[in-house]
Here is the input.
Amino acid sequence: MENIYNLSKGVNWLNALLLLLVTLLGVSCKTDIYDEFDQSVNAPLAISTSKDAVVLQESLAASEAVAFNWTTGSNYGTNNSISYTLYLDRQGNNFQNAVATDMGKASFQKKYSVKELNDLLLGLNLMPGVESTLEAKVVSRVSGTDLSDSTITTLKVTPYQPVTTTLFLIGDAAPNDWNADEATPLTLNPSAPGRFTWQGRLKAGEFKFITTKGAFLPSYNKGTSPTQLVYRTADAQPDGKFTITKAGLYAISVNLLDMTVSIVEGSAPPYSELWIVGDATPNGWNIDNPNKLRVDRSNPYVFTYNEVLKAGEFKIPTFTGNGWAGDFYMPLVNNPDLSSTGVQLVRGGIPDLKWKITTPGAYKIKLDLETMKIEIRPFTPPTQIWLVGDATPNGWDIGNATPLVRDAANPNVFTYTGALKAGEFKFPLQKDFTGDYYMPVTPNEDATSTEMKFVPGGQPDNKWRISADQAGNYKITIDVLHETIQFQKQ
Here is the structure.
């Protein structure tokens, strides 16, 4: 009986202890839950900073610059909650133009990254590279009353002048030549200020970088070595340029914080020749004599085929002859919709996937091996084309451009017969300098040119150039489907 009694006492004692713990936990939870709303506090409001001084560096833009911390302050025995507002302003300005941040309730710290603080300081008109004093004030307000308090501290700050967020490629090596209004943009790394990249075709020639479209200054030019940049702000300063000796695909990386540049020549395309074969094409399934695609001389990764196609199928071999045992460029699925741009290289040609033409007619096909995309578009020729340029009878007067004559038997063929002076010209499809054009494949081609290219929007702005010894009377014949041009001097 004594053992049973002792056991009963132990259980009662344990139950009492558990009840006490539950009660304490309940009180604790209640205090945590309602602390923000009904805690009575009576302490002085004070503000401090995690550092006494900060010298901001753009290379550390994402890092923490400083934290402002403050105490609870007092609600003056009201048991009401307290809200806080942080004000920042330049010293001596009496917070007249302060940056105010509503911190809400139960919030006792505000952190700023280097970029956030620098943007704020420049907005307060503090000078980059110069140490200044920033004043910080926190104001506490008791909810439901007119009671408030405030306290101030100071922080020594040195902001920086951020580098540009836009950068453009300009020069006769660049896609759009020296046209500052159409300079080629580089891509900014969103997580790394001052770092830009670009990949594409460069011609033999020179280039540099500008920060704003349409403005040649400021610019970033070649420094003392091919990997160093120099910042140029005046015409009187040296105008060094980077040189490309061989046209090709290049990758450019720019770091404006350490003033360096990397220019790396890309690899050659996997094939220099491609063909098209199938019953939709003029030569059918003849693998020994398939139709050849045209390589874009301005970009060896791009192949085109412009032709009247029959109803039927086609695929793109990387070889001729040798039976059918070779690699093909094919669609991702068999007989896709022609609006689909997906393409793949199929080793050995199995599975045997093909594109299918259901509506016979003229088509323009463009295969890009760099982006691995294909465009297959029906083609309708324009009804009118003009000739404009200082080599032509009416010069650069686009409103009075010289019309070409459309062939009655072949709507894809247009001709011009007349004089060409020494100078430049191109073929607009509208009487508008911002419209579409037929242009030479590369800049400054002359009367020996045999190819042309449809250029939406007229950029890059390539033109044919007639030299003084080539000037005279010509018959020019262009075929807009096959994108060819023929000069016949009369």
